[in-house]
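Let us begin with a simple case.
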Amino acid sequence: MSRTLTAPTAPTAPVAGHSRAWAVLRPAAARLGTALLVLLCTATVVFFLVRLSGDPVKVMLPPDATAQQESVLRHNLGLDRPLVTQYLDYLWGLPRFDFGNSLFYNQPVRAVLADRIPATLLLAAGALVVTLVIALPAGTIAAMRRGKAAGRGVITAVLIGQSTPAFWVGILLILVFAVGLHALPASGYGTFAHLVLPSITLAVYSVAVVARLLRSSLIDVLGSDHIRTARARGLGPVRTVLRHGMRNASLPVVTVVGLEVGSLLGGAILTEQVFSWPGVGQLTVQAIANRDFPLVQGTVLLFAATFVVVNLLVDLSYGLLDPRVRNSR
């Protein structure tokens, strides 16, 4: 009896394709799940913490209000329901971007935030531009001129900027450029001139952080073998840094820039107060003072979501900047 031998079949292309696709998507899915968990924890913590600040009914009614008036207003606001019920209703609205109604503005929180977000984004974008325009050349000069007068001068200025409070910088800029020179407005919103002083104020700390990190990263990279090889081939120091050094030093810089984007949005609270900038930061302070629970929850969750999304994008961009990171996933 003869037996026919058959060659083993190779795995089909779709299976291999699905495996490669899952290998690429799995890290992104894991990070997305972690981001959603962080947002859920943030929403939970802020929901219970804001209710420790006091009763908003006491703020909304005059001091001579009767107990009956307080009871009626508390019922109309839904604050007389069990705390667990309020919490579950709050979580149920989050996937639909329903943060409830503002107690002070008597409007949906989503609508109130939508009116203020453009101003904060404009301020953060201006501060980010100032940060990159100043920090990247400063960090590069400090690394290339290490140990020389130019490098020491840059580091000294960076350390002073990093140790100076933002609100003090804002007040100083107002005294010099608005009160003394009458060159720029001290407060307000609407023109490019109104944007200059708040952007510089908000960017001072970020400039220091990015410049110091870029200097440290470039110093490490400039001592590597491939940089010495490039110099041996006749490349000038500037071309060597820009062509070979900057990309290899970009990973930690991109990380801290991503973190600073979230910090610029969150740190805009003090800057907006100093310059009367009508953004989310100023809105947050007003909501806390008014004990506007839904509005405070919405603003804090917005800041948290900004941090989470930016960090997620930065993490996913590592593979584009460094093939070693991409191949290790």
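The second case is a distinct protein. As before, the sequence precedes its structure tokens.
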Amino acid sequence: MTETGQHILKSINAGSAADSYDAVKDRASRDYRNEASESSILRIAPLLFVAGGIPDRKIFIGDVRVVVSDLHHAAFEVHIKTSWSEINEDHFEMMEFGLDELNDLTVHNFPLLQELPDWPPTPPVDQEGLAAYFAKAISEQSRDCISQLREIRYGLENRLAHHSSHDSGSEDHASVVSSLLQLNIILGRTADQAREAVREGLWVYISDEEAYHSYRRLQDPSIINEYPPATADLRPWMRLHDAAVRQCGELRKQADAEAGSVRALLASASSISNAWEAEAQSRFNVLLAVVSVGLGVPALVLALYGAEVLVPLNTPPRVLAFAPVAAGLLLAAFIAVLKAPKGRHRAIWRLGAGVILLALALLVAAGISAPA
């Protein structure tokens, strides 16, 4: 209630059922209390709303039905088609509405209903003007929420840039890719809702078919019908209606643009994964070379001379014969340190180099202490 004699009712419904012409027309035949009436003016505006803050945000997509019974009574009916809940920072998962969730999703704890516009500052001349005012305000709120989805995309882009280095593992990279896919779905559903609102003209034809067809001629002069293009003189509220439809069109454009950016990020993530696979294969080849040097050179020397010729290491000729064994192990340890990758795998490679040096020390000790 905004002032004496002016009332707004607010309600919430959750479901994915599509709006049919008969269902919308039936709703327009009842007043703002959903009771029988001669007629009401109805508009359906697209809904995009981001509630809460990090790390407990929720994203709602659907529509808001504005039912105006007279110049003093209106109702906002929020119909939620799909919604997402934040699991951790910038990672969302789709919410499934059950009885418990619907009971918790009340007017008092759903922020959008508290932020819906107050009564117009200047009294409208008719019900259509009041409905157009509310539809424009709701469409503009939904369009403004695109900036919050853009911030989510920026956050994921920053995480992708961070995880593209080898400071983080592939699990973090997979989490970013999953979040980008969910964000792409969110943007796609948002664009669909806005596209439907533009195509249906906010369902203005339920109450004024002439205005609907005239406005279509204004949007596309190539349309063939008997109605002239809409102007401000056609209906007093036509400017507000045009502004509302333009807000829906801008919502669709921005959602499509953000979806394109998300798809580009997904392509970049795929390229990063391919680069990681190529580098992993390269590191594996280096590791095989290290193992070949570390095992092959000592085995070759032992095969040529035999162990009884090399041990004990108590004469210069035997020490000289043992030198290739030591050199092979030292070369393997040097390659392991030199080619160690960045990130958490570096310590593993360095540990391997240490094991090689330890093996060399044990061989030298065994050679010296071996009996003659």
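The chain has a mean pLDDT of 80. The chain is about 60% helix and 15% strand.
Keep these points in mind for the review questions at the end of the chapter.
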